[in-house]
Design a protein that fits this description.
By secondary structure, the protein is of the alpha/beta class. It has five helices and five strands.
């Protein structure tokens, strides 16, 4: 089994990253080949709207670190997308990459990926009201489902402003463990 974590936080040890590492570490103990991509340390351009991926090219035409992440995503059985919520949305780093996943769709908008994959969303926010930003998961879930990620889970954490705050949240650490066990067995 191959699992990848795509980390959208600009903080190297941010709360969404800590939860993602916990999930991926469990996968490693179960024999999964794990790879992680910290987007804030990579050169990833957004979709250029060139249409090459819909006109003869099956991959994104942009040649940067994003192409490496897309290639890993094509091979992944498990995808963990992680981001803090900034201004009611995933970070710019993750959104920029996510736009590039357009290349994973055929011209008729069917997926180029094999179905039956698993997706996990790790979303954290400083806002103490967890009822805010519930639409973020549903919006991105629509896309990953269309790419063939049929099973998915979400962990959302509130009141997580400073890096490492999540380490004091036994509820969120337990939820990460529960999701990891469901995903990796």
């Amino acid at each position: 089994m191959k699992a990848i974590g795509i980390l959208g936080s600009p903080r190297l040890r941010g709360n969404s990253t800590i939860l993602t590492e916990r999930i991926l570490d469990y996968g490693r103990t179960k024999g999964a080949a794990v790879e992680r991509f910290m987007l804030s340390t990579m050169q990833v351009r957004g979709c250029q709207g060139c249409g090459a991926c819909k006109n003869g090219l099956e991959d994104c035409a942009v040649s940067d670190d994003g192409a490496t992440v897309l290639a890993a995503m094509r091979e992944a059985d498990v995808l963990v997308l992680a981001s803090p919520i900034y201004f009611g949305e995933i970070t710019g780093q993750l959104k920029c990459f996510f736009d590039r996943t357009y290349s994973l769709l055929n011209p008729d908008f069917t997926s180029r990926l094999t179905p039956g994959r698993k997706a996990v969303y790790v979303l954290t926010q400083g806002d103490p009201d967890l009822s805010h930003y519930t639409d973020v998961f549903e919006r991105y879930r629509t896309w990953t489902r269309s790419y063939g990620f049929g099973q998915d889970w979400v962990i959302r954490g509130e009141s997580l402003g400073a890096s490492g705050d999540v380490l004091n949240r036994t509820d969120l650490l337990a939820k990460a463990d529960e999701i990891a066990k469901a995903v990796f067995g």
